[in-house]
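Model the whole thing, not chain by chain.
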Amino acid sequence: MSKTDDTHSIWRDLVRAYRNNRMATAGLAIVAILALAAIFAPLITPYDPYKLDMANASAAPSLEHPFGTDELGRDLFTRIVYGARISLMIGIVPALIAQIVGAVVGIVSGYYGGIVDHILMCIADVVLAFPSTLLALAIMYTLSGSLVNLFIALSVVGWASTARVVRSLTLSLKEQEYVEAARSIGVRDTIIMLRHILPNCIPTLIVLLTLRIPDYILQEAALSFLGMGAQPPTPSWGLIATKGKEFLFSAPWIGITPGIFILITVLGFNFMGDGVRDALDPEVGG
Amino acid sequence: MIRYVLLKIFSTIPILIGVSALVFFLMNVVPGDPIAIMQRDFIDPDALERVRREMHLDDPPMVRYVRFLKGMAHGDLGYSYKMRRPVSGVIATAFPNTLKLATCAALVSWIIGIAAGVASAVKPGSFLDNALMGFSLTGISMPTFWAALVLQYIFGVLLGALPVAGFDSWKHLVLPVAVLGWGQSGIVARLTRSSLLDAMRRDYIRTARAKGLRERIVISAHALKNALLPVVTIMAIQISSLLSGSIVTESVFGIPGIGRLAIGAIHNRDMPLLQGTVLFGTFLVIAGNLIADMLYGTLDPRIRYVKD
Amino acid sequence: MSLLEIRDLMITFQTQRGLLPAVSGIDIEAQAGEIVGVVGESGCGKTVTALSVMGLLPDRARTSGEILLDGTDLLGLTPEEMRRTRGTRISMIFQEPMAALNPVLTVGRQLTEPLVRIMGIGESEATEQAVRMLETVHVSGARERLSAYPHQLSGGLCQRVMIAMALIRQPRLLIADEPTTALDVTIQAQILDLLRELRDRTGTAILLITHDLGVVAELCDRVYVMYAGHVMEQGNVYQIFDDPMHPYAYGLMRSMPEAGRANTGREELYSIPGTVPDLMNMPSGCPFCPRCAESGPLCREILPQLVRISKGHAVRCWKYVGTHRAHDADRTEEREGARVAR
């Protein structure tokens, strides 16, 4: 009873600290608006993101096409709105996978120690030794470019740093009295890990998640730009901007607009990440 | 100290083996027969035959991997069939360009980043702090290639002041360094700020003030000296990752460096070259981590003396 | 004229929940060469008082009243003038000597720094002074210690270095904030001896901030007992220890383990019931009232003035206001009796 009360008040404090942070609230608002736009895309725009209209190719922004059209006459606003689905998904799905895999590996590694720990951490160190874009590229080379493969590549790149952090957390949690007590009365290891260790790792995992999502959105943009991410005609922001590079002189809006959206989205997530981190550790950040 | 360094170097050996294994199997085993892949878009039968011989493709993977390791130990990274030269030679030609870009970008980002971080931390919550941190966060949040496009558009197309591609004069360096420097300085600035704010809360700062020292000296001689320890570590890691090739920046600006090499190898399905550049980049990161570790050990007396 | 004279000092903090009164109008004096103790539980305002004398309160603190040092009001000084005062006329040592020294600078550097950076003394002369100062605080092998880093020294040695650092420019007043709390018992005694010896030798006044009555009894000439931002009782060390008058003061005395008394293991140490009041929601009358066994209706309403009992001895309690003492004491007994009867 008292334990749940404590947990509740901790979360309440967190929410209050987060709400008091203007930038964090702004970040949440940006992300919420984008998420709504992504979900209700067909209601927001009358156009089809894939339908070509060569007669209207590379049209400048107008009332009809607020962001203009791309080189194949597709409405840019529509492609941006549908692109939000991809960007949010590419940010959130592999980041979640990486967090879950990292948490499991980290807890198991820290809890059992010994040879299991050695092997798992050696693998993590190997992954961490790669420059992340290079590793993602190498994996995409092997798997060939597509959205699903991009999920896989980013998950593979990301889990290791989470595992490292969670492992060191687990090592200190393992020494806590309530864990020792649970062990001494013969509670099963899986139960201890799930009930006692995992919940204490959640705040850290959330911070890492909110910082990883914007990183992945940028990675997707970079990989798509390099031709190793989403493939045409997917309306990925990175891909649209890449195509826009060729029309930088004649139709600059094609390249500029999606970049602005990536920037705003990533800023939104970064504001949220900073807000969550400061709420959890009010000392930092002044 | 020497023992510590040797120990650290020794401890990277399993990682080196793991890295080479991962790269090797990623490149050689998973995609099936590399010759089949090459034949899709590569038709020079002489080179193909040479690759087949070089790679001993009929041997089992483990045998090939051991041979690959042996070659690597002698600095032999294989043969690029697109460039028709040894991979190590190709990398040696490209590396000076990356080195030039990385060094300039790192210097710019360190100077701007540390200065901005200190200015921010001295008056947290001030207009200057908010402006500098907004600038830093924007730098971190921008897609690199897009920032490059915008700068190319403004300075190349609108103003016509700077070249947008190539690598012939110092002018060619300005835009790529600006793009890389902005993002990297954001990381340094944010870390410097939080680290300095943390240091300013410590008891020894109160002591320094109690001595009647000027605030400028309290910050520079007492707080900064502690606050820069983690920043220096990040800086070592940063330069090594810049040296392993800024793939996006190099390809936007057409700079013939390591990053361009890697992406070119992918598009040409030049597996040995890709393998070589990935390994090279990874070695640089490992070396960077090692240097960061040792720097920290040298700069922080608490660690320095424990090791002796 | 007293060396230090704090008059009606009030300190409030601006917090997210509103204004927090940390110190509510206190008067404290210290003569040259005197060791004055300020004692109380954590949160009573004693450290905040010390920091206000040093001019080291955070920006969100608001101060009013006067802090006179040799007749100059420190609260009226500009930040630059206050900076020049620190280290030369007042110095301070802190609770955690290890944390109070900069981990990345050598002891010698930290000792000579004010001499070189502020007074413009040459490095070699400053080094000589640092060595002499370390010898004064009985650090053995003083010259070799100069190149050591704080983590290579014990806590006691660190505190000696701190003391040397604080006294190197011969200040008139040394503020010691819990100088022995973080140290082992044997080291505590050595540091207290050192402080007394330095006072005897240099005539520096010491304002000792502590929660430890044992330290006060050992070292102080006069004592102020603080509770929730108020001085509850003041007097010389004999008056306070032999004849504590405020219920809080004798509660403190009873909670102190007596040295030399055989510990039977049965007797539990007395502790004052209740907890320190929340400074944000202070009771309107005497702040100790909710924890006081002898409180009456008046205590809840109005905070009493300090009442002079004898020369130098004063107490802030309704028990001693107006009518003579015995009467109040009778009433107390009646109340106690009634409680037992029920």
